[in-house]
Amino acid sequence: MRTMWKGSLSFGxxxxxxxxxxxxxxxxxxxxxxxxxxxxxxxxxxxxxxDGEEVAYDEIVKGYExxxxxxxxxxxxxxxxxxxxxxxxxxILQFVPLDQIDPIYFQRSYYLAPEVVGAKxxxxxxxxxxxxxxxxxxxxxxRDKEHLATLRLRGDVFVLETMYWPDEIRELSLSDVxxxxxxxxxxxxxxxxxxxxxxxxxxxxxTAYTDTYRLQVLEAxxxxxxxxxxxxxxxxxEPAGVVDLMEALRxxxxxxxxxxxxxxxxxxxxxxxxxxxxxxxxS
Length: 283
Fold this sequence. Notes:
Elements: E1 5-11, E2 14-22, E3 62-67, E4 70-74, H1 76-81, E5 89-96, E6 106-114, H2 119-132, E7 135-142, E8 145-154, E9 157-163, H3 187-199, H4 212-225, E10 228-231, H5 245-257, H6 267-270, E11 277-280
Parallel strand pairs: 1-5
Antiparallel strand pairs: 1-2, 2-6, 3-4, 5-7, 6-9, 7-8, 8-9, 10-11
């Protein structure tokens, strides 16, 4: 696995040499932009907006716009001097219970593995954190940006999750979307909603879910490679109108009670992909 960062984990006076590895692999389908006439790929050039002239890479500098169309310019050496001390050290700041952290702060996950010489100290820290059911709050610098992060265990390996800073989280209330007052909830409605939640509650199995859009795109790609024409089928149907809330809850609870035992979140049920219709091109 490719190492993307190498440094040390600082725990009090203990320093553990570690390496950082990507923990996820996004599977979204990517496309290239082509000229329709000959499928030639589209390229982009760096041009100055003032005169449209192409700009060589070594002529580009970084500027911060402090007023409209007014910039302060930084040279690479000036920015390097401003990098925080945590650029090669992950400093543990404190330990907290995981349930105290709002998941909205989590950004991206990485595996943090020890160098051979740091294996014992790494195991000691992981054992102590597991016994205390704690996660660590720390700082790390990646790609010239300092991140707040959490450090927790997944099996016998640490997972480091970078976090958004508090001023990067947008606040939203119902009044921001013109809802100043919520209609009073009836006890029967609350009871029905709670019953529905209880009937649909089960252990989380991530393997039961699949990116159906990506699978359908890839199936369509294979069909086109095989010379088939793809027919788009609209299964969305008509949008549902306003329904009686209590009646909708009652029907939902009844349906959840009558679900077959093997129909609750199984892979077979949740990964069905509606294959696009295809037909051979007319010769």
